[in-house]
Amino acid sequence: MTNPAFERIEADIKANPVVLFMKGTPVFPQCGFSARVVQILSHLGVPFKGVNVLDDMEIRDGIKAYTNWPTIPQLYVNGEFVGGCDIVMEMFQAGELQSLLKEKGVPVSAEG
């Protein structure tokens, strides 16, 4: 059985090197956790696609089931699930996020 939400999630993940499933948009995040991840990615100068889960309940529920991860935001780099806000913040502070992005060929214009 195919899952239309999973197919749309996979299409976004495959079509974009960095995808953030979030509440709101990169310009207008609608939760503090999403805003923090947007701020980190923007600070690093990383181009990314934001997917507003508030616009689509199928995607909102689907992304949680897709990764078996209960919270939003969720960050993907080259198709790989990185984590939610806390993990992204910890990786950023340790310099691990910058290293991961570079390893995956994603341009980073600031070190942090």
How would you describe this protein?
This protein is an alpha+beta fold. The protein has one domain: Glutaredoxin (3-Layer(aba) Sandwich), CATH 3.40.30.10. Helix content is 47%, strand content 15%. It has helices at residues 4-15, 32-43, 57-67, 85-94, 96-103, and strands spanning 18-22, 49-52, 74-77, 80-83. The protein has a four-stranded mixed beta sheet with strand order 2-1-3-4, with helices on both faces. Helix 2 links the parallel strand 1 and strand 2. Helix 1 (4-15) packs across helix 3 (57-67) and helix 2 packs parallel to helix 4 (85-94). The relative contact order is 0.20. The model has no long low-confidence stretch (mean pLDDT 95).
The CATH topology is: Glutaredoxin
> What is Rg?
13 Å
CATH superfamily: Glutaredoxin
For the largest sheet, list the strands in their spatial order: 2-1-3-4
- Biggest beta sheet summary: 4 strands, mixed
Total number of helices: 5
- What is the level-2 CATH architecture name? 3-Layer(aba) Sandwich
Helix content: 40-55%
Number of domains: 1
Query: Runs with pLDDT <50, length 5+?
Result: none
What is the averaged pLDDT score?
A: 95
Q: Write down the overall geometry.
A: globular
The secondary-structure class comes to: alpha+beta
Range of strand content = 15-25%
What pattern of helices and strands is seen along the backbone? HEHEHEEHH
Strands, total number: 4
The CATH first-level class comes to Alpha Beta
The span between the termini is 44 Å
